[in-house]
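Hi support team,

I'm opening this ticket because the web form for multi-chain structure prediction keeps timing out on my end. I have pasted the exact lines I submitted so you can reproduce it. The total is 851 residues across three entries, so I didn't expect it to be a heavy job. Is there a limit I'm missing, or should I split the entries? Thanks in advance, R.K.
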Amino acid sequence: MRLTKFIDMLLFSLTKISAVITMLVLFLIIVYILANGIPHLRPSLFAIQHTADNVSMFPALVSTLIIVLLAMSFAVPLGIFTGIYLVEYTKKGSRLVALIRSTTEFLAGIPSIVYGLFGMLFFVEFLGFGFSVLAGAATLSIMVLPLIIRTTEEALKSVPDGYREGSFALGAGKLRTIFRIVLPSAMPGIFAGIILAIGRIIGESAALIFTAGTIPQIPQNPMQSARTLSVHMWALSGEGHNVGEAYATAVILLVVVFAINALSAFVAKRLTQY
Amino acid sequence: MKKLLIATALAVFAACGGDFAADREINIISREEGSGTRGAFVEMLGIEVTDADGTRDLTAPQAEIANGTNMVITAVSGNQHAISYISLGTLNNDVRTVNIDGVAATTENVLNGSYPLFRTFELAVQDDLSAAAAEFIDFILSAEGQNIAAERGYITVYPNPPSYTASGESGTVVVVGSTSVAPLMERLIEAFQAVNANITVQMQISGSSAGITAAINGTADIGMTSRPLRETEAEQVNSVHIANDGLVVIVNNDNPLENLTQDEVRRIFIGEIDRWGHFLE
Amino acid sequence: MRNFQYFREMAMSRIFLGSAMCSVVAILLIMMFLFVGCLPAISEIGAANFLFGENWTPMNTPPSFGILPMILGSVYITVGAIVIGVPIGIFTAVYLAHLCPPNMYALLKPVVNLLAGIPSVVYGFFGMRLIVPIVRDISQILTGGGTGASILAASLLLGIMILPTVISISESAIRAVPVEYYEGSLALGASQTRSLFFVVVPAAKSGIMASVILGIGRAVGETMAVVMVAGNQAVIPTSLFRGARTLTSNIVLEMGYAAELHREALIATAVVLFAFILLVNIVFTRLVRRRERREK
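Hello R.K., no limit was hit. The queue was backed up. Here is the completed structure from your submission:
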């Protein structure tokens, strides 16, 4: 009896301590970025045109948005459809499902640098896209696909079967049930996955250097090279000339990620109300 | 809990602020293989040897590898026992330089030839260079282009460059290569674009070897390199010398060491001398 | 009308199936291109020399391409990161899912999400400026040397970096466990902690496992941050306080410079990385499956 009490105590305090450690570390990192970056923020960092003097991050900010949108426009429909297929259309124990599920899990584990090399060999060289926004976005969309599939799957599974049965009982077809009943109630979970995916894209640098290149410009078309904010940071810090500006870029990145998170929380809330 | 944290923090700070300990091992920080900075450094100091068996870079295997000047400076400025090397143009107050053979590492000393460690910035180009690319190279070698190099702390190599007049060419020029040359190239491109709106110059930063390769296989018009071309490379492309760049050996600001001979630098980097006590008592 | 509806149902189910096949196609393409890219190197160097060679000197003539030091470096650093990050992550997930007061949750959850989106370059800066000096001091005290850029520093940093992944996925897995489990256990007289750790967490096992696999994937695959804190020496690591080079750092350090055989050898490094992840995946799915079977 005393032993179980002790184990209880131990586990409970470990939980508390872990939460405290996580919190401390997380806040430390955020404070570190803010403290190093905010002093270097100045209006010229947002000039429309990048020059070696102003090292503007504006083109990188726009390119980041473009690459995120492009990559998500490939990955989101594919990911959600795959999730729907896996949860709604398959019978338990199907060989095909097992295959798809294990490839998805495997894809999720592949390091981004391997995606980068693959993107370079396939999109940049084999398909002849060159260092371009398109090659970068295509590579990243494969990279985040498993994340979206996985979260969609989990979200769909957590929708109670009663919803589906109710809808069928009322005479709705399968598609109607999925798009009108199941998908809306799974939306918050799916959104969480999309947010995670966007976060990964924004944070990615290794895979993009080999696929989208490093030119600090606003791309005029998808076949041009561009750098995202993360790549911009990497490029700024490399030679040691603009480390302060690199931290300032990190602050903006934080703000962007925070804004996306807040927006998604808001949207998810609206959706669940509906 | 709070007390414990404060105590740990204090202990860490106390350990950081200690005096320079000469009995400690020398922490060598080098650059990655293929880096132009490393290539030039090991070649000049005889750290790279060529004999009947081929060419070998003898840099001590325990040397930490930093992939960028920023990382080198961060590592040396935070570590009392570190030694490394960077380009003179990127030197700042976070670290200090060591005199080589008694000569201080300054731009003047590189210019007058007394400071021995410097490398060349070159461009690798094909014979059938496009008119737009040729125009850009003319600009780099002109008084205007060379002035930009001099302003940024690089050493110009042509005594009386001609002044530049735009000829009205148009086209696109792709420049690929060395991270070390890139900061200078970026300025050159901007100044060039200001007088030549019809020529677009695009730069991709990768590395010296990648730049030369790109010029050889034609994916770039101009390859930037911060090390001399190897023989096999020189057979396939021409090189255009655009500037020199001093290389400085740097140590931590707390390190009292003033001077090293070239041979001492070599012996440190191949791991023969591994204690600061060899120089300091 | 009914026909049209039937047609629509059929068409959509085909589209769903087609989407699902995309990930299979992607995997096949990746394998094809990487394997084709590395074959020349493997045939020239020899698979055994490549995998078990202890020297990596690509710029020498003749060059030597042995990646054993990098394989070991990746293994050590990943194990370190898992030892540090996974327990903290799972415990924090339990805290977030069940023990956390709502206002605390409103603070912590966005921060965890925020950290998932921070680029690894930023983590690298953080590690270089804060973790490496601390590890250096510890190592100077304990071993009288070392630069701080070491296996330990890399493991600590990666341990932190995998936290958001482990926490988010474990938390949703724990939340997905029907609340009846928890309440049932409480009703049977088990304490709150006991119910959580012996009923709820085991029920969320497959989700937690997935989070660990993703965490391992992130740790093995992390590149830009590891390069900044691991020291990157291509020698077989001998101590926690000595540096090591991972497979990923090897690629990112030299890809910009590599040509011909060197480049193919780096692609082959990526294939090894790929195989490594495959192995981890297989082992873990086997483990989970076997345990599930035994419990049945």
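A quick check on our side: The first strand of chain B starts at residue 27 and ends at 31. Let us know if the file doesn't open in your viewer.
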